[in-house]
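[step 3/7] fold_predict: job queued, chain A
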Amino acid sequence: GEMPTNTLAQFSGPLHDQLDLTHEAACLERFRINFRGDPRVRFPQPVVPLVAPAVLVETFEEGVGINRWVSGSKAAHARGGSDEQGEARTTHEPETPQEVFRDNLGRLGVDSLLKMVIGHNFVHADLHPGNILVRSSGTDAAPTLDGVVFLDAGMTASLSMRERDELLHFFDSIGEGDGRSAASAVLQFADGSATNRFAGGRGIPSGQTCPNPAAFENDMETLFDSFPYRSEVLGVTAGEFMQETLELVRKHEVRVSGQVLTVIVTSCVLEGWAIGLSPGVSVLDHVKREMKSWKARSWWNGYGALSL
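[step 4/7] structure written:
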């Protein structure tokens, strides 16, 4: 059938932006400002005045593609084994210098993403391994991580204050293992003002297309009950949660804004290569820790009070 107009706009918008290289130059400058206090994270600098819609000259950045360090997923998970009680676990304490290096690299990637989402509200939306360089020193046998360089910053995502609050509400619900609360947040990922349809005690936006919010809440509760969220013990990843949640979104015809979907998919992509680096890396654990830190604050980076 015909592609809906709003879906077409979600796909065409980011692609259109990337045709104008001045847009990418502006994104690079913004990322450089956002991470200016963290010398471990770098972005190329546009060389002004060699910036135009069809031309972008950037500084040359030293580094090696991250694929050199990413282990195959099967090999990474194979190191997990089981504990004395026979329960599956995927965590692995790094032992060799190379394993410590990969573990630190995976954690730096996850921390950088969470800073983009939670701290900056400006997310690099194309974080596949081909766009990441690793800066290191030392020897191959005993490498030291100096930092990472993120390339190709033309595709980004930013959320409205409401979308941001609801995404944090969703992350917080994952950390608490609360399926109904997570469903309530997902149902808010649509445009429009509140209606007389309710989920979690809140009015559902008028743009929400889900025909049966109660059924969606029930299925989300069942999902959370069946997926243990103590990832550090049972090996549940944020990607698994997101994939199952998106399947329920499809099943129940839940409308989710393109910007929120972009952030969620980017999180899954990053987690994939982070786990390839070190199976002990857990986006869920990092999210829970960051949420505890940010919930203790009474303000939200100049955007208003945090309402979770």
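[step 5/7] annotate
Residues 19 and 53 are 7 Å apart (CA to CA).
The chain is about 50% helix and 15% strand.
exit 0
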